[in-house]
Amino acid sequence: xxxxxxxxxxxxxxxxxxxxxxxxxxxxxxxxxxxxxxxxxxxxxxxxxxxxxxxxxxxxxxxxxxxxxxxxxxxxxxxxxxxxxxxxxxxxxxxxxxxxxxxxxxxxxxxxxxxxxxxxxxxxxxxxxxxxxxxxxxxxxxxxxxxxxxxxxxxxxxxxxxxxxxxxxxxxxxxxxxxxxxxxxxxxxxxxxxxxxxxxxxxxxxxxxxxxxxxxxxxxxxxxxxxxxxxxxxxxxxxxxxxxxxxxxxxxxxxxxxxxxxxxxxxxxxxxxxxxxxxxxxxxxxxxxxxxxxxxxxxxxxxxxxxxxxxxxxxxxxxxxxxxxxxxxxxxxxxxxxxxxxxxxxxxxxxxxxxxxxxxxxxxxxxxxxxxxxxxxxxxxxxxxxxxxxxxxxxxxxxxxxxxxxxxxxxxxxxxxxxxxxxxxxxxxxxxxxxxxxxxxxxxxxxxxxxxxxxxxxxxxxxxxxxxxxxxxxxxxxxxxxxxxxxxxxxxxxxxxxxxxxxxxxxxxxxxxxxxxxxxxxxxxxxxxxxxxxxxx
Length: 537
Description:
The protein has 17 helices and nine strands. The protein is α+β, with helices and mostly antiparallel strands. The chain has three domains: 2-27 and 197-394, Multidrug efflux transporter AcrB transmembrane fold (Up-down Bundle), CATH 1.20.1640.10; 48-191, Alpha-Beta Plaits (2-Layer Sandwich); 424-536, no CATH class.
């Protein structure tokens, strides 16, 4: 029965699996269904599933003019008409309160300059000095204006497409200006760059590994046909595994991207075992009969070990466990089917090259003799190594450094680091504070406590800036007091604060609170990119 299965059924089943895998991987138009998702959310890191931000730094070589502010405002208007864009903010369009003729005016810089073009320079100077803008929407040297676009995409590919389109539109808007430079960063853009880098690296690693495997087969058996057969088996095992990934509806991510090299390593070991067994015994069926139990046990234990990883809550690790187990079984099946069938079909007799065999046997004998002669020392050393390595494993801190996975010369990393240096970090997160009811967060003691929290946060080296409702309250109060610098403070009267919100609250204030003033948000910019450091922060 065993011989009959290997003569007919197993090779036919392997060919059928290959045909089915090609059907699963390739669309009728010739494109591949296999997708890459290198976003942090794909491996379980904290990231919004739909909303994301694009952060652009627009740097002017000379002084910023009124026409420049108008150009940025018009660009924002175009961006807001684009699919997926939720909002856009810059120093040109953000509303700020100002004292004008014993009254308070809430307008954007762009509209103020339109209304009073003769005061354009003075208005620009006032915007530069506004604490709501400095360090958040305008760099410290007053030469780089931040443009923050919030957008939404339902899938990683949709987010990457929207972010790429936004970048193109923003870059094209200033393409005619030789005195303007644009840097942009966004999580989808970084993810796309990391995905592309992974694919390029995989395109190097896999061929190099295949060449190394071919050299091993050549040194061992000195047979070109055996090299070809072995590479076909490795390719088939990877093909079956990747087809399973597509059929499950998954994408390659930062974890599962290592599945192809893993399957290749497992298949190389299994193919080498089959070739060595056929070299020792002239009858293929007899060789496989002797080999099937130890190989089957090896495959089963490897599969169980990989499946043990599936108990984690991280989806990416679960996918790696399942695909690794499928790859382990696929590598064994490919070695058991393609190699024997090809040996029989082309009448190849695997023969270990005598010099290689003698060296391997001699080396193995020396190692065995050493272990037998120093058995106690070997055991003690192994126990000590196990203890030391276990302690080291427990000290490993999990984390990811997405942007720093890119080379220092990569444009995405350079853009991220440039913006991060100018604005205290291009990475943002939010602290939500919920009050007891309507107008709860307008109490002076609550606003003062939040203001103290922001001051403490901004004093930390891992925080670039923090902005929230108290900053707007202080800005409105200062405008009501004729712009006196000493009036940049939170009033002690809660009734006055409520009145201020009614008569002078800019629309941008609702990025940091709700309509009922029952909760507020502190938006924090940080240069930290490592997930472990972010969790600690």
